[in-house]
UniProtKB/TrEMBL annotation:
One of its GO terms (molecular function) is metal ion binding. This is Type-5 uracil-DNA glycosylase. Belongs to the uracil-DNA glycosylase (UDG) superfamily. Type 5 (UDGb) family. CDD domains: UDG-F5_TTUDGB_like.
């Protein structure tokens, strides 16, 4: 397991907009993301969590770095969450891996044929995603799961470049939660799509068509309640509800 970033990185990235623009492909972008130190509060928090650890994971080496996206570089479906969990992706280095939210998410993806297995424990567990890439508008675990607006905006270039590189194949975005929805719309509006006015409002099951401005395919945006424990434990979001959203995403994307 990779060590905490403060012990590894000789040249931290403090300007995401400049760095993201240099990425020629998603592999390069993912590597750059993991070197970002643009937000001092988030750097201190993620590394502090990685040093102190949770008792259940005391024997593990935490990732403790910004978390890149996960999934194939020619994905037709993107899943946009919020940010890494302190003892989930901040520990494992892969989005939604190693926490209860990920348990629900990956089971649903497996059930509809978008994942090779129903669970996700670590980077080396063999999990593959099919036609799907998972990402987030904020790449560092934030205190109380609440990034500030400035932190969200500083992180925006990573997501913008990721979607730009996915553009040739991307057809559908499933957004988990209102935070991701609000963070994503400005990214789309500044890229190859025209966000309708008034802007579509978030809601579970909401479907919005975002017209393309570059002559390419339009984008279908699907809203889904976040797979947080608050939603899944209370029944606000159930496995059938989640499967229904991903099945719709498959159909809209033309995935068999």
């Amino acid at each position: 397991m990779t060590e905490v970033i403060s012990e590894l990185v000789a040249e931290p990235i403090e300007a995401p907009a400049q760095a993201a623009a240099t990425a020629r492909d998603l592999g390069e972008l993912d590597s750059l993301v993991a070197h970002c130190t643009a937000c001092p509060r988030l750097v201190a928090w993620r590394e502090g969590v990685a040093r102190e650890k949770r008792a259940a994971f005391r024997g593990e080496q935490y990732w403790g770095r910004p978390v890149p996206g996960f999934g194939p570089t020619d994905a037709s479906i993107a899943v946009v969450g919020l940010a890494p969990a302190a003892h989930g992706a901040n520990r494992t280095g892969r989005m939604f891996t190693g926490d209860r939210s990920g348990t629900v998410l990956y089971q649903a993806l497996y059930d509809v044929g978008l994942a090779s297995q129903p669970d996700s424990h670590s980077i080396g567990d063999g999990l593959e995603l099919y036609d799907t890439r998972i990402t987030a508008p904020v790449r560092c675990a934030p205190p109380a799961n609440k990034p500030t607006p400035d932190e969200r905006d500083a992180c925006r270039p990573w997501l913008a470049r990721e979607l730009e590189l996915l553009r040739p194949t991307l057809r559908v975005v499933v957004v988990l939660g209102g935070y991701g929805w609000q963070a994503l719309l400005p990214v789309l509006g500044a890229s190859e799509w025209r966000v309708p006015r008034p802007r579509p409002k978030f809601g579970h099951g909401v479907h919005a068509r975002i017209p393309a401005t570059d002559g390419g395919a339009d984008l279908d945006l699907l809203g889904c309640y976040h797979v947080s424990q608050q939603n899944t434990f209370t029944g606000r979001l159930t496995p059938p509800m989640l499967r229904e959203v991903f099945q719709q995403a498959k159909e809209l994307a033309g995935v068999a």
